[in-house]
Amino acid sequence: MATNRTFTMIKPDAVQDNHIGGILQMIEEGGFRIVSLKKVQLTAERAGQFYEVHKERPFYGDLVKYMSSGPIVAAILEKDNAVADFRTLIGATNPAQAADGTIRKKYAKSIEANAVHGSDSDDNAQIEGDFYFAADEQF
Ligand code: IDP
Ligand code: MG
Q1: Calpha distance 66→61 (Å, rounded)
Q2: Whether 117 is catalytic
Q3: Is residue 112 within 6 Å of ligand 1 at its C-beta?
Q4: Phi/psi class of residue 77: alpha, beta or left (left: φ > 0; alpha: ψ in -120 to 50)?
Q5: pLDDT per residue over 104-125, tens digit each?
């Protein structure tokens, strides 16, 4: 069942370069409501867990190092057709192939340091949102 929610992270390079505001503005202007939001730094262990599906890929070790190299901003977003529409808004994984008007086209530096994460399915949006926010429910 589509939940109309997706999950995003603003990655360490974009946080380091002061693009939190610019990226959140593109997200809001893209029609997404920010449901939950926080800035945190992942340990290498937690980054490894988050990207566990990629552990056999050649870039996994570098990705874990990069994603734990500085703070990230995690958010749950809401919109009709959220998962697919957010993938459209962020653009291709490799910024060299990202369409004009996408977040990665504007802010990504490389295929690894590509500014933002976006969930690839409703199930993963739920799992990834819970990874950061499930323990916050007492608020
Ligand atoms: P996605 O973020 O567009 O869904 P995935 O294939 O799920 O792309 O890869 C997860 C993340 O791993 C990417 O966002 C990027 O940071 C990194 N990554 C993907 N492919 C490569 C690569 O070929 N070299 C280095 N890093 C990569
Ligand atoms: Mg992915």
Answers
A1: 9
A2: yes
A3: yes
A4: beta
A5: 999 999 999 999 999 999 999 9
